[in-house]
Amino acid sequence: MAKRKVILDVDTGSDDAIALIAAMANPDFEVLGIMAVNGNRAVPITTENSLRISELMGGTVPVFQGCAVPWTSCMLGFRRHYPMYSAPEEALYKNIHGTYIDQCPPATIKAQPKNAVSWLVDTLMEAEDGEITLIPLGPLTNIAHAVRIEPRIIPKIKEIVYMGGGFRVGNKTALAEFNVWLDPEAAQAVLDCNIPFTFVTLDATHSAYVTMEDAARFRAIGTRPAEVVASLCEQRIAGYGEWQKVADVPAAPVHDPLTIAYLVDPTVITDIEDAPCVVDCGRGAAYGVTLFDIRNGRAEAKAPNCRVALKADREKYVDILCRLLENTKK
């Protein structure tokens, strides 16, 4: 069976790093490249972190630095400064993500000279229709630029599986998820392309939390990538313990790798709905909220434009990560 060709678009902090390891450890994926975008950290840092993980996994997957600021919102007066982290938020993000992925040494490989957006356009223009799956794990800035620059790439994309959005769960605000909130205009622009699109939401990732026992399972695999994953999970568990309780035991959601697990085994998602979605791009309290309408059968509901993953099988998720990590080298 032919490998699935994938491109990852990441704002590499702790969970992106785990997702990158999982993707590159999957023998059924051909990872064509990694695009870094501004998000959890500024884009030079997310690029360096992506390079560190690529090098950990052999250094053969190229990394491309992408957009440093959101697609349009920095031109709007209501976003007075950027990035928009308060001092407490900065401390929180540092506890959960760190600044750099300190579990890996500074990268000796370099980012490719071409910008991520240009590379994505060129790569998709050379592809067959429906050939490449995009797995964005941060703001959709890079992809929004690409589809606006060259709309002919749209049919080349098989599907987009996105860690983003929330139905009943938010993190940046009460209902807005960080990746979408950071660039909601980009998210709406990509949705408007009518590419098959799956949101792996906070609702799903919070139901598939990782515990200290799970981290110990990862470490017991005995490879260097498995050790990095275990350490990053422990870092997240400590950070969430100071911020948001997600289980009756020390635990944390590890959001981004759930996209990889879903592509490996779709049954890891136990509740998924077809739904219309609109991203709130106004200036009020709902800014950045993904508005999913799952009122099945309501005559006034719009036609679905995405799939929405709402719940996951926690044990199966951890098992999939273990299986992928067992493919890594010492």
Automatic annotation (TrEMBL):
Domain Inosine/uridine-preferring nucleoside hydrolase as annotated: residue spans: 6-318
InterPro entries listed in its UniProt record: I/U_nuclsd_hydro_CS (IPR015910), Inosine/uridine_hydrolase_dom (IPR001910), IUNH (IPR023186), Ribo_hydro-like (IPR036452)
Organism domain of life: Bacteria
Alphabetized SUPFAM superfamilies for the sequence: Nucleoside hydrolase
MF terms (GO), sorted A to Z: hydrolase activity
Pfam families in alphabetical order: IU_nuc_hydro
UniProt keyword Hydrolase, yes or no: yes
UniProt keyword terms in alphabetical order: Glycosidase, Hydrolase
Annotated protein name in UniProt: Nucleoside hydrolase
Species, as recorded: Hydrogenoanaerobacterium saccharovorans
